[in-house]
Amino acid sequence: MDLQLKGKIAIVTGASKGIGRAIAERLAAEGMQLVLAARSGNLLEQLAAELPGQHLVQALDLREPDAASELMAVTLDRFGGLDLLVNNAGATKRGDFLQLTDDEWADGFALKFFGAMRLSRAAWPHLMARRGSIVNIIGIGGRTGSAEFAIGGSVNAAAMNLTKVLADRGITDGVRVNAINPGAIATERLWVRIRNHAKEAGISEAEAEKVLPRLMAVERFGAPMEIANAVAFLASAPASYIQGAILDVDGGATRTL
User: Fold this and answer.
1) What is the DSSP letter of 221?
2) For 28-51, how does the pLDDT look when each residue is reduced to its tens digit (9 = 90+)?
């Protein structure tokens, strides 16, 4: 299927590793020109060198209030426009609700919610000009509450609502906005959970890797490229009638409506 993405411009945040890196690899394979954003400049440079095409690397912290406008400025200076924004950056701390501090709550919202909100706002007029789109990478914790995921679940729920808000406006402005909720995806963050479970249960990491999916009631862990494939489709011309969708890519973990 021709996704009709060749030559288009995309910003991918959190692109240095994990899901963000896979998204960058998938979009570059489609012939898109990318702005790769994250805090780790070295990892971004390594990624850019491995991708086909010429891409812009921008090391910055989207928790900073001015970072979104700076990222848009360098994007426009280099490429002259924008067709796709992938808001992928952001991780939140797990833990006991009664032990989580105000600073940890504020940090959880600072990047994944406020960073994405500011970047969407900065990008919006330029996406309007080219009838572009936004894909937000959120997470299934926003649909189903979990005691040890208080911050992440709250941030994800807010990000899903923001997706619907922007999609509603996008009908008038000609900007498509959709979201993907990854489930348990085999990234370094998940491997930390596997190692912790192995230690707590007194089993090997290999055994923990088999046991954890069953505890999560899924067949297996997902691969980062499976999220990337969904991003490429949602950004494509064949998906042009999809607006305000929140796609759970989680192996069936979310069983609620």
Assistant:
1) P
2) 999 999 999 999 999 999 999 999
